[in-house]
Amino acid sequence: MQTGIDFSTDKDQILAGMYAKTSIAPLVVFRIIFGFMMFASTLRFWAKGWIDSLFLQPDHFFHYYGFHWVKPLGEFGMYAVFALLLISSLCIALGLFYRFATVAYFILFTYVELIDITNYLNHYYFISLVAFLMCFLPAHRSLSFDVARNPKIARDEISNWPIFLLKFQLGLVYFFAGVAKLNTDWLLDAMPMSIWLQAKAHWPLVGSFFTEKWVAYGFSWLGCVFDLTVVFFLLTKRFRLPAYVVLVLFHLITGFMFPIGMFPWIMILTTLLFFSPDFHQKLVIFIYSKLNVKVGSSIEYNSLILHGFKRKILTFFIAAYVFFQLLFPFRYLLYPGDLFWTEQGYRFSWRVMLMEKAGTAFFYVTDPETGRKGEVDNSQFLTPTQEKMMATQPDLILQYAQIIAEEVESKGLKNPIVNAEVYVTLNGARSKLFIDPEVNLAELKDHLKHKDWILDR
Amino acid sequence: MKKVLRFATVVVLLMSFSSCDPEKPMDNLTYSDLFEQTADNIIIPSYAQFQSDLSALRADFDVFDASEVQSLEKLQDQFKATYLSWQSVSAFDFGPAADYSTLLLMNCNSFPTNVSKIEDNIQSGSFDLDVPSNYEAKGLPALDYLLFHTSQIELLTELSDSSRINYISACIVDMQTRVEGVVEAWDSYRAVFVQANGNDRSSSLSLLFNTFLYDYEQVKRNKFALPSGFATQYGIPIAADNSVVEGRFSEMSFELMDANLAALEKVYMGVGYDGVDGVGIYEKLKEYNAQSTVVDGDLASAIQEQFAACREAISLYTMNLSSEIENNNVNLSETSNALQKLVPMIKNDMRSYLSVTVTSTDADGD
Fold first, then answer.
1. How confident is the model at residue A163 (pLDDT cuts 50, 70, 90)?
2. Which residues does chain B have within 8 Å of residue A355's beta carbon, measured at their own beta carbons?
3. Nearest CA in chain A to B218
4. Cross-chain Cβ contact A352/B12 below 8 Å
């Protein structure tokens, strides 16, 4: 942590704060909420038939860069994975075999997300990260079956850093979602908010408001200000309650207007973490009283506060995580071109509900020997969702071209030429040719460098 | 504190008007007129017309006299009329027509038809038209073969064979039974259709839009691009093959294609069976002041004009599609482009303004 500049007083203060003792109650309440929310989300996912439609129906899958080797498991396997997700999330909520359950949940959930990149949602990335953090946090050391089994592990107090990390992660989602809105489309043109509201113009009573330009500007600006500031208000004692009320309203309204599933509920409940230890203590006592169990008294001795070298290692890892999370969303600056158009460095950056993008992709295969050329019927390869996601994202367009090339070669057509004529409309603008239609995509290799065959916005 | 409260109040005030009736987020008062016009003046009369054409075909067939050319000609003419009226119902492959026991589209118009399978069935005399393997040996494409595949003189000789007559009869009766089922089911389904609001997968808007798009893509690919050599099969470019056109033997592919486009155009414009232009998707797009992202200006008119352009392109051919393909007419690729241009207008722009979702999964923005 030698930076060469003297941050020592700040650093010491931060470190002292991070390792100060605090009540375990907020962390325990967070664990219970997280566990039950994940349980409910998994049940909902199952009930909606998405295991079948997302992991069993598709003939081909789109991979994350470097994760080509992640494959779905087949019918029995996928249902087994989801059954294990249900069990492990319940175990997290109950604090039963907590360590094992969190690791299992993190690995299985992340595995499921890695199968097909067209399913990517920032919400899922958020859950993967929280599940990862939970693996290391002592969230089972109170109000848990683990404590019932082994009272020696019970604690009333822990260091501050677990709660700090979770608050940081939650705050990041809002703050970066706000930073992402600081662009001319969003602020100066009220785009794509105007399009989204227009589509709801037939709503009773309020529908006519939605076609008003000032309403779209109002929604855009308020959403941006909310995202940028809410976490700072939540951190202050004075503004916490009003900020939370606004947060609840914000999520209810957006959840009501857009198909964003469980996300609003997850955020509404997990942000309770910002409330005082006192508040959580009362909640814990309330739960105890409902369960008719006596509040256990923990042992004075607290082994959880690390010292010396171990603390340094922990500090290093926490700092590394924080810096990574702060810097990673800015990697798009390394690429030329318009971020929304090229989407190079777009994912994993909390860019939620930010643009309206749609594409139509016509793929053509040419047999170099006969010169015969034909348009590909995308529905013979992809599901409608996959096709929709692919048509606006250059890396997926490339992957699809290679899926086609592979399939065609396996049928005996050697060295096929695959071209794509893709038209994309962004935030209501005229459709434009998205990538160079002359490029033989079958010949290219995917990489993290700039894709120079993407045309300008 | 005051500041925050003021901020909160503004947010609440501004946004609260959107949450006044959370139980019914998608009150589609403005869509029910579209559904009513489409059901009452387009879908139901079109099925009735197809049903009555099938009955007429059956009647002509019942009195068919294999010794008279006129009798065959009458049968052939009525078949053509029936095949044309089919084009007006093919876009409604949802609800009763898509019911597992009916599957109207597959059973009535799976082309290209499998000639050797038909002959085998006739020869063996024992066949089950309900099994999926016989989709390609029944329906209108099978009749197209049986009633047109050779000269009238030879057909008359063929049709004096009772096993052939039995097969034709079975094909007609099979379609009649299915259409009758659909027509009856629409009596009660109509109420469901008119009321299924919202924009999820089972909403009428979604069904109507998705089958509309699917039917259009069938015109573009199966009826045109595949026989003309502009398509692939699982990625492999397919050589032009004029034997896979729709209506191959009766040589009416362009007429059928035009009838199909005309039917889609009527659904889009909301032109009813009585010829009166009511509320269609066109009117809805106008209401939304929808803008095209493909060409300049208003989306509603852009789609209307592109439909016209496609039909215009088809009308310019002097021969049937099969012969144009054989003669390698260079205009075919232009027609292909015209048909292609309509795809993003429907698939992206129209979908976006109607807010029809592609899938049921969650989103966090595109």
1. very high
2. 365-366
3. A377
4. no
Q: Which of B30, B231, B291 sits opposite A375 (nearest CB)?
A: B231
Which residue, among A202, A346, A379, A430, would best test binding to B if mutated, counting the most B CBs under 10 Å from its CB?
A202
pLDDT category, A211, cuts 50, 70, 90?
A: confident
The two tokens of residue A407 are 């399939």
Decide if A217 is inside a domain: no
Q: How far apart are CA A302 and CA B31, in angstroms?
A: 65
Please give, rounded to a whole number of angstroms, the shortest distance from the CA of B221 to a CA of chain A. Answer: 8
Q: Could you tell me which residues come within 8 angstroms of residue A324 by beta carbon, excluding any fewer than 6 positions away?
A: none
**Minimum distance, in Å, between the CA of residue B176 and any CA atom of chain A:** 31
A269-310 pLDDT per residue, tens: 999 999 999 999 999 988 888 887 766 555 555 556 777 888
Of A249, A377, A429, the CB nearest to B221: A377
Q: With respect to residue A399, please indicate whether it lies within any of the assigned structural domains.
A: yes
For the segment B189-196, the average pLDDT, to the nearest whole number, is 92
Q: Mark which of A142, A159, A176 sits at the end of a domain.
A: A159
pLDDT one-digit tens code per residue, B34-90: 999 999 999 999 999 999 999 999 999 999 999 999 999 999 999 999 999 999 999
3-state secondary structure of A96: coil
Cα–chain center distance at B212:
7
Contact B288 A198 (CB under 8 A): yes
The ipTM assigned to this model is: 0.85
CA angle B349, B352, B358 (to 5 degrees): 115
Nearest CA in chain B to A46: B361
> Is residue A186 one of the residues assigned to a domain?
no
Q: Residue B347: list chain A partners with CB under 8 A.
A: 360
pLDDT tens for residues A52-72? Answer: 999 999 999 999 999 999 999
Q: Which residue of B has its CA nearest to A375?
A: B231
Q: Do residues A19 and A314 make contact, with C-beta atoms less than 8 angstroms apart?
A: no
What per-residue confidence (pLDDT) applies to A303? 55
Domain count, chain A: 2
Mean pLDDT score across all residues of chain B: 89
User: Last residue of a domain, which of A113, A132, A159?
Assistant: A159
d(C-alpha B347, C-alpha B210), whole Å: 9
Structural domain of A147: 7-159
Superfamily the domain B26-354 falls into = M75 peptidase, HXXE motif (1.20.1420.20)
> Which residues does residue A22 pair with via DSSP β-bridges, in sequence order?
A158
Task: Name residue, tokens 């922990």.
Answer: A314
Q: What is the pLDDT of residues A8-20, one digit of tens each?
A: 567 888 888 888 9
Structural tokens at position A101: 């359950």
Cβ-proximal residues to A156 (8 Å cutoff; 6+ apart), any chain: A23, A24, A142, A297, A298
> Which residue type is seen at A342?
T
A372 and chain B: CB distance < 8 Å anywhere?
A: yes
A357 interfacial to chain B (CB closer than 8 Å): yes
Cβ of B348 within 8 Å of Cβ of A365? The answer is no
CA distance B8 to A386: 40
Please enumerate in sequence order all residues whose Cβ is within 8 A of that of A160, keeping only pairs 6 or more positions apart, or say none. Answer: A17, A18, A19, A20, A21, A22
A242 reaches B (C-beta below 8 A):
yes
Domain range list for chain B: 26-354
Task: Of B199, B267, B213, give the one whose Cα is nearest residue B34.
Answer: B267
- Cβ contact B8–A246 (<8 Å): yes
A–B CB contacts, 8 A cutoff, strictly below: 191
